[in-house]
Design goal:
Layout: H1 22-34, H2 36-39, H3 42-49, E1 53-58, H4 63-71, E2 75-78, E3 88-93, H5 112-122, H6 132-141, E4 142-150, H7 151-154, H8 160-166, E5 170-176, E6 179-187, H9 196-214, H10 225-235
Antiparallel strand pairs: 1-3, 2-3, 4-6, 5-6
Helix pairs in contact: 1-3
Amino acid sequence: MKDKKAITVKTLSKSNVWDLQENDIFRLLEAVEKDADLKENMRHYTDIIKTAFDIEEIKVDKPEIIKKYEDRGFKVSQIGKPEDNHPKLAIKKRPILRVTDLTYENIRHISASKLIEVLERNFGGGWESLSQSIQDVIESGFDISTTTLPKDRLHKPGGLYEKKVNDGFEVLEIPKGLWIEAIFAKEKPEAVAAPSFLAEEDSEKDEEANKDLENTDGEEEDIDDDNFKQDDDDDDTFDDEKLTEESYRTTYETSPDELNLEAEDISEDEDY
């Protein structure tokens, strides 16, 4: 995970708010309270903060009440001057415990090991048991691959498991009878945005290309049908040398008992 950059009120977003902790939120709210222009947009800032934090006003400012909030993991502080009659605020960062807590905004703010913890806490059926929407969220921030192998083959020296771990992947193993589904997760690198002047150049080139197309007076290039068919045939050619252990990805619909393969039925020379 990258070190967080200094986040100000003006740069606060529903994504980077997940990089902050409770004390950071109090600091930002204090800055808003002191700036008249920012204060006009207080509702906007609190709406962003509430996507990652629970915020409650303490209407009864008594030690026993504050203690109850603190016992629940909240941090309590006063925003603004007490004489301004601002209530104290109790703030707590929302935990990511279940797969349903994962969003496009927070997925890049957890580590691969944290993701494995969340998956392990919610799992039972394997990767395919997750809804497509949750899979999409996870894969927006992590490289995910799975394999299902007999348990005595999963940790074979030089096999997929060893290669993935050596490549920095975290792994979750889910037993399925005599087989094990392994789910590998690794954080995706942050995409590097192109400098704005390059983006402008590309845009200008696209506009010029579109103008050229408009000036062709509807002329179209002939398509060589024979070459097209040949290329299509080439794409369908199957090369069994490309079939590797990593491409073996299966989630079984039947019960583990129906997959009860005897060890002696598996040849020592076979590679899954």
